[in-house]
Amino acid sequence: MSDPTPDPERPRNFPPPPLAHEDASAAAIGVPAEQVDAVRGAGLRKGRIFAWALWDWGSASFNAVVTTFVFTVYITSSAFGPKGQLEAWLGWALAAAGLLIAVLAPVTGQRSDTSGRRKLWLAVNTYLVVAITAALFFVEASPEFFVLGLVLLAAGNIFFEFAGVNYNAMIAQVSTPASIGKVSGFGWGMGYVGGIVLLLILYFGFISPEVGWFGVTGENGMDVRISMLIAAAWFGIFALPVLFAVPEYRGTGTAREKVSFFASYRRLFGDIAGLWRERRNTVWFLLASAVFRDGLAGVFTFGGVLAASVFGFSAGEVIIFAVAANVVAGVSTILIGLLDDRLGPKPVILASLVGIVVFGLVVFFLHDGGQIVFWTAGLGLCPFVGPAQSASRSFLARIIPAGREGEVFGLYATTGRAVSFLAPTAFALFVGIGGEPYFGILGIVLVVAAGLALLIPVRAESRQLS
């Protein structure tokens, strides 16, 4: 056996001659095998976390570019028909997509758990979204292409949510109970920052200038259509690392008996009934989180509308504010994820929701102050949005039974979709009552406050469901 005593004249990182077993090189320079295993495991874990978070970075191209700032604005422009009707049809299309997601998400998640093909279905649904995003290139700026755009947008939302169910379920494969908050925050923060990086590239490269890169102009919507191809490529590329770095799921969920598609619903209803009987607290959390998550979605959905209609922002200024808001939200989400692991997710969520309510009311009461109010109070609100979303995911991930992550995150998606009408309805209702757009702020604040009230009695739990 070789002498493990290190040679004082040889640098510690100098590779010694090959020895008899895998860790013999480390032994030859005096490094204990336990330390080697720990370093190797930590490096592998960090690599998997980064690969997992890159999916969030890439998927933000669909959230930021397709559904929020670029394509939905394009398809509701005057080139496609009269204003008012277009927004209504867009709402109906997304509502139909939401209904299908609510019905199918828990079962598709459950079946990916029991089949041991969680990563496979993440890949399938992700690249269906990539293909659909690329197909948006064919939606020309003309009324006859409006229906095609709606169908593609609705389909993209459906498959994006299905992919998200499997992606969220994988957090248990890349984190530990001690790090799940930090990992969730890192992923969510990467999503914010990645979407904004892409948005800046598209805005300054193609959408803002009269003649963009490669001579692209806005004629027939070509600037937006080219942006869809780039967004598709962005998602497709950054979704690859998680598929190579994180192993396929082979946990306890695969031990459950495989049943037919329709029998999956019987199993689902039985599981829900079991949750209600045995762990009603989890059901209340799903309800509370659905309400406040819809309020959080309303913050970004209507933020741009309020910036333009109430505070006089131009289209370019709205984009710049959106970039700043998402950067602030992304950085805060990553940093506050550390507190999630130290204090638990519930205090993070409660503090975040209180912050959103307070700053939302400041924006409402000081709306006559002009753009400086929106820049200061609006940005003051942004650091609370991401942490609330991230901590909500980590709260649920901590208590999901091993092997049922896909199913329960499917329920998470379903409950969110079931109440997704709340923020838009409250916004429209308060605008109607007050007669001015800024009254819509109260509607969004009310939804967030309702979610906060529902969350307060929910017990913070750290143990998994049985």
TrEMBL record:
Keyword Transmembrane listed: yes
Membrane-traversing stretches: 54-77, 89-108, 120-139, 145-165, 186-206, 226-246, 283-312, 318-339, 348-366, 372-388, 409-432, 438-458
Subcellular location: Cell membrane
Keywords: Membrane, Transmembrane, Transmembrane helix, Transport
UniProt xrefs under Pfam families: ATG22
Gene3D superfamilies for this protein: MFS general substrate transporter like domains (1.20.1250.20)
GO MF annotations in UniProt: transmembrane transporter activity
Record-given protein name: MFS transporter
